[in-house]
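**User:** My hope is that you can spare some time for a protein that puzzles me. I have put the entry right below:
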Amino acid sequence: MLPDFAELAKYLRQNGVKAHFTIGGHFPTVDYSKTLELIPEVDTVVRHEGENTMLELFNQLDNPSSFGKIRGLAYRHDCKIEVTPARPLIENLDSLPFPTRNTKTQRYRGLGLSSISASRGCFFNCSFCSVRQFYNGAPGLKRRSRSPANVATEMEQLYKKGTRIFKFVDDDLGMKTKRQQEWINTFAQELKNRQLGEKILWRTSNRVDELDLEYMRMLKDVGLTFLYLGIESGNNQGLKTCNKIYSQKDIYAAIKTLQDADMQFDYGFIMLTPDSTFDTIDADLKFLRDLSTGGRVTVHFTKMMPYAGTPIAERLKEESRIVGPVDSPTYHFTDERLNLMEAFLVKAFHEAFFGNNGLVNKLQTLAFDIEVLNRFFPKKYAMADYTKSVRNVINRYNESALETMEIALNFMKTHSYDDILFYWSTLESLAGQELEAHKRIHSVAKETIPAKI
């Protein structure tokens, strides 16, 4: 997004806006010098958590000579970039006021929908993730949680304003340690005491190795209805590259736990990594076929990107493998045929995976819609028929996508780079057939609406 911000800042300056421009977030925190270099119109960078740094900066805008006393700030001074010591992370998140929100709440099926955060940071250090790097360098605990009562109070206030669906944006909701389980016990009780549990729906994100059946059932009783699971890879080599610290066996155990809890889920998956081979992709496709059986989930994946400061980015720098501009760095694979495999996958699936009206997003929305209707309107619609229709259309897409990927994979791994280029028009035709299938399935998905009873 750096080019977008650069274009906006330049436009505003050219049109007479003289206000102080500051910027924050993961990349500016990790590489503040490059941020100020790429966007010369920006005056300062707020590093790490920004609440208190922003407040001090605001109070000192008319006194730039004092910027050096503001912790957590990077700025220009005498044609050089200066950076102040990192500000300690906020220890007590309950001390922060609730977020200021838009007056108009987002709606889904007439129900208010709000995002909410119960914690900051993560205990883990996945190789591709910049969350840990965002907090590293700032003194303090790298993961902190709000108190259960504080979170429940915000939810209660939002409920009174019409919110019924809550999307927790925390990096992870743990269920394994004694402290995490105490938090869940108290949080569930808070929602019960406020008589919210049966009136709301919420979703959260979890690691594979932190699911606990007892606590999942406890949270389901107070509205947990949908879960995002960070699977990332279906083979042990991929999990090692991601530094997930669990195995393929643990993933299947987690899926079994979800089934036992009757919990619907979506997932994150990184099929292309710097260590990918045709064998790892083959293993991942077999895993995705198992995972998506019967339209349980929608098949999708991404490529591991070397975000600034992450362990994988540092490794690839050492190996001199990073290519491309700073705002969208990437890398080539050690087997040059995999670069062609990536090009094929982009042509066949990029729009479905990442487009604004992409098919995968549409199918995921339908799966979520089932949970919303079951939760809030169980007697209004013929849910058994609707659920069957949605699963059928998801399964239709999954079968088409997996078959297309398997055909391309089997062809490329048995041919040379030059042969693949020679037959590239055939592969383009295969990608075109998949795109046509997406259009047909998209039309069916649009017509998949629940019948009223």
Q: What stands out?
A: The longest strand covers residues 224-232. The chain has three domains: 2-83, 90-272, 335-453. The chain has a mean pLDDT of 96. Residues 2-83 form one domain.
